[in-house]
Amino acid sequence: MTLGTGDWIVIAVYVGIVAAITIWHTAKTTTTSEFLLAGRRLTLPIFVATLVSTWYGGIFGISEFTEYYGLGAWLVQGIFWYIIYAVFALFIAEKIRSMPFYTIPDILENNYGKKAAFVGGIFTYIMVNPAPYLLSLGILIAYFSPLTLVESIIISTCLCIIYTYLAGFRGVVYTDLFQFMWMFLAFIVLFYLAYNEWGGIEFLQKNLPETHLQITGGMSTGVILVWAGLACWVFVDPNFYQRCAAAKNPKTAKHGILTCIAFWLVFDIVAIGSAMYGFAALSAGELSIPPGNNKYMYLALADHLMSSPLKGLFVAGIVSTIMSTADSFLFVAAVNISRDYYWRYLNREASDEKVVVATRIAILITAVFSAALAIALPKVTQLWYALGNIGLSALLISMLRTFYGKKHGGHAALASMFAGAAVACLWLLFGLIHMKNGFPVYPLGVEPLYPGLLLSYLAYEISGRLSHESNSKK
Number of structural domains, the chain? Predict the structure, then answer.
């Protein structure tokens, strides 16, 4: 894709508006509550915009998934998640907002003690490392510039640092509002132009494999169940907890997530639909992409369908999609260090100023670590997937029990975390040792998440009951 003067002007306007939003909200950030939760005053529109935009940082992954499974991408990346979103909204969101807490380890400490909070904080940090998104943004910068990937990752990291460091969570959510509007505009325009160019379903039926137009996308039941399980990520995602805690009131948290589902549905339709048009056009010979570069389908499609300055609008839309996730993960990971370790274990009486300073230092530390990880492991998304399985296996049971069911003590939570993480690690290691055709082969053909969750649940129950019996004898 080549960009003209008009495109670069549009991109410059985008950058300028983001900078202006940052400067404006920096002056309003003074207390810990303001810096970490925007004063717990997020209204419904702001809540919806920041949560929706935070969830699409892996936009290139959507096009890759669509290439292999077509409409199946909507099932495993959309429909299953909508169900979990709705469960979270109806049964958990209001409870989070009613609690006087900031983070997941806050909740763990209140229910299980400091040791559980310490261990849980480690897994939380693992799950929100922004390295995959800094890498994605770096790849995009390198695509349009003579810079190397390493230089591009450094630039992408600096961009994310600027407004998270200066304006905190307030800067994140208000830039997310702007990026939310821009990313939707960009992809709606792309989908419309693709539909206008090639027509409706007939073009897709003619040029895509038959399975691509089936809701399962040709995936096996086992693969579908794996992705269905991964949707439970929502229950332990710190971004959901932080935004619910920052909502104006419990109803805003609940209704906000339910409203988000409608926007996620729309964006999935235009994003997956555009990718399907792109791959159909590629099959029909009306679009060309160098071999091995199908992850750039959106850019190739935009280059084919758009002229200046629409190309600039779309590129800024891609940047918005990635940046709104990268900044959120960077900030939540930094809060994990400052709130969950500095404040909890080193200085419980820290003033607002000291907590804000600690968070800003943590932003820099996390950014440097994440950039280094992205540079060292350019396939870091595989690492992110593996660590996500470990984190989910460790945290899910203990976190859900803080809201529903019979809750046991700290020993049960620790046993559950260690057992779930250990089994998931061993399962992953087995798969890596027994690779076949470039893919891991797991015992019994079962992905790590399910044995991890099973052992985590058993450890929670057994340890809890043993502890209860021991206390009864005393």
Answer: 2
